[in-house]
Amino acid sequence: MDTALTTEQHEIRRALRDLLARHGEPGAIPAAVGTAEGYDPALWRRLAGELGLPGLALAEEYGGAGCTTTELALACEETGRALLPSPLLATAALAAPLIAALGTPDQRAALLPRIADGTLTAALALPGGSLATALALTGDNHDGTWAGGGRAGGIQARGEEGERRLYGEAGRVLDGHSAGLLLVAAHAGGYPRSHTQLFLVPGDAPGLTLTRLTALDETRPLARVELRDTPAEPLGADDTADAATALADIGRTAAAILAAEAVGTAAGALERTVEYVKTREQFGRAIGSFQAVKHRLADLYVRVEAARSAAYHAARDPESGPLALAQALEAARITTGEAVQLHGGIGFTWEHEAHRYLKRAAGDELLFGPVHRLRDHAAERAGLFGPADAASGVPHGAGVR
Length: 401
What we know:
Layout: H1 7-22, H2 28-33, H3 41-49, H4 69-81, H5 88-102, H6 105-116, E1 122-125, H7 131-134, E2 156-158, E3 164-174, E4 181-188, E5 195-202, E6 208-213, E7 222-234, H8 243-279, E8 281-282, E9 285-286, H9 291-316, H10 321-342, H11 353-368, H12 371-382
Parallel strand pairs: 1-4
Antiparallel strand pairs: 2-3, 3-7, 4-5, 5-7, 6-7, 8-9
């Protein structure tokens, strides 16, 4: 496969890397996550205004750049390398594609240009709390468990055509506490026609309470969303449309973007570790000169490059997105763990950047994995082991190694 980047793609990467490097001074991440938004609003305005990141993959008619998933994946790889706290993932990779796919012409015209210019951020609120399940990355999402347990659980929508009222709660909503718009999955249709539907809820809607939660990775803010008689507008014109299919469709593309970001996290940790072992001396020489350290770093380099290749391929062919995500998450977990080890005692310091990379990798696998379930579901969808044996229930060939 040809993974060569175009001149325009190289320019996107260079411009973004340069901008993030200028804002990468010590203390930048703690300062950003300490704000009410959980990110640096001034930097976000520059990323949106100068580079157009939120609108990279949006059509030009809505103020976007009209680029492909590959360009957005490249951008997320760079933000992952810098551990940038930003609403880019929640807004551009999750919410915007759903609005573009399901929204009415009026909804798209009202919301997508504001997303493209960065003045509106959005978040996907799922009452079941599992993004991986809702996006059909780790299992079939048509059974409704990801939406909070059917008619008696999750978030309920009441009312007739047009404006609805939502009741319920969603936890672990990525960047939900600062979002100007929430896409909320709720049960609608009453008892006879119960189905899960997506609704648009402004971030300042009455009856809406947004609470920022303590998260393992402070650069990935999570929120609890509570709705009490909150007015909402159905996303799209078809009031009976089920959200599961739409979420599964955008899930594979989102997985490719997430994979690229995880590759950036792994690459950033590896680059910083290489620089450290060049200067850290023991027994009168740099520890990077020891053969054992060189071998460990070489193994990590191969692992990161393989994950990068898989992520680039998935950006062009989203069907392989879940598998690429599994490989990237695994590469990030192993690479960041080794980075902490190779930094020695300082790597275990809570505030050290090596520890931040480790927490990003661990937090991402909790949100979007785990790796073994991503691979298991991908194998199931591909029919890798064939139909299950009627007597044993074990897929044919499952025991062959």
